[in-house]
Every structure is written in structure tokens, then in C-alpha cells.
Amino acid sequence: GESVGLHLPTLSVQEGDNSIINCAYSNSASDYFIWYKQESGKGPQFIIDIRSNMDKRQGQRVTVLLNKTVKHLSLQIAATQPGDSAVYFCAEKGDDKIIFGKGTRLHILP
Amino acid sequence: GAGVSQSPRYKVAKRGQDVALRCDPISGHVSLFWYQQALGQGPEFLTYFQNEAQLDKSGLPSDRFFAERPEGSVSTLKIQRTQQEDSAVYLCASSLWTGTGVSEQYFGPGTRLTVT
Predict the structure, then answer these.
(1) Which residues of A33-55 are buried (b: 16+ CB within 10 A; e: fewer)?
(2) Which residues of chain A neighbour B59 with C-beta distances below 8 Å?
(3) Nearest CA to B69 among B12, B19, B7, B21?
(4) Average confidence (pLDDT) over A103-109
(5) For chain B, does the N or the C end have fewer beta carbons within 10 angstroms?
(6) Does residue B48 belong to the interface with chain A, where contact is any CB pair within 8 Å?
(7) A8-64, pLDDT tens digit by residue?
(8) Most A CBs within 10 Å, among B21, B33, B97, B105, to test the A interface
């Protein structure tokens, strides 16, 4: 079965607010996680990654938090914009392949 | 610069037909991956090449699926005797290298296959 999965299929957020997308994983040996953004008709696009020896990593308007105790990671998007509307996947890097969860669709409300 | 390109972008096949999907990776990228994405799902790994060598094909769902990368650049995913359950988006990704380190995978736009 899948080793990563998401809590919610859809998230609606007011434009300008912060978005938080959650993900749980099951393999405690996992050591590298990635968040992807996928817009309609496009392939997944790398957003940010984090190794298991970190608990937080920041990018431009995005932050990933990793809680190894409860095997949970989250993606925070600050000041959500219309262009953030997409499906977001958390993923785990295996030996060579990437293992994706099902995805959360982020809707931006005007 | 040019990213990963895939062709065709859309393919409609009648059940039982053979199809061939092409992937042009980013120039110089050693590793190439194929994923299958069913509607409303995350991509699922199919197979992986390092140069021309197919190192992992554990995700191919049946022996009707075959992938090749004969010169270590362009890759073709072939599906024989297509079935309706093969309908999905087929994504190709490439990365500069793999191994003990981590190299970002860059995805193409995918080929949407519809089997009627």
C-alpha cells in the first residue's frame, strides 16, 4: 500500500490567508520528503523538500514542517494567491522512485 | 531552457490497439522515470532508467507494458493490446543523476491516454 497519504482531498482558502496542507506517512525509515504542486494539464512541479534530520525548512512563501514522532508533515503557504490553486502532493523519495500520496486540491476563494 | 517534453499530449486508442508514448528528457540528464497517474490519484512509479540501462521495472503493471531508452536519451513507453484500465496520464521525469545523493526530478506535461 501507499506509504504517504493526505488527510483532506480539498482545501478552500480565502485569498491572502495562509494555507496549511497536511500529510501523514507510515514508513519511519523514510528520510527524504518532497512537496509537489500540480496544475491542470501539467506535470508535478517541485516546491520544497526536507530531510529527516530537519524539522523545518523555509522557501519563498512556503514552509515545510516535519514531525517524525507522529510521522506527519505539512506545507504552509503564506498569503495564498490565485496562482496557488492546484493539487498538492506530498511524496517520499525511495531508492530511486518517488512515492506520491493522493493529493489535496487547493481552492482559492476571492 | 527546454524542459522534459512528451508526445503525443493526447492519445485515444481503441481497446486492443498498441500505443507508443515518447519522452524527451532534459539534455544531459542521466536518469529517466515513467509514472502512471490515474484520474484523481497521485502518480505511481512504473520504471526507471540510468542512461540506457533499465534498472527498475517493478512498477510496470503487466507484460503488456514495455519501456526502452536505447541510446540513453529519448525513451518510449509502449503498451500492447490496450485495455480500458490503461486510461491514465503517463508522466515522464528526468534527473541529472541518482545514487546515494538526491537529484530533483523534473516532470514533463504527460500524455493523456484514453482507451475506448
Answers:
(1) bbbbbbeeeebbeebbbbeeeee
(2) 97
(3) B21
(4) 95
(5) N
(6) yes
(7) 589 999 999 999 999 998 888 888 999 999 999 999 999 999 999 999 999 999 999
(8) B105
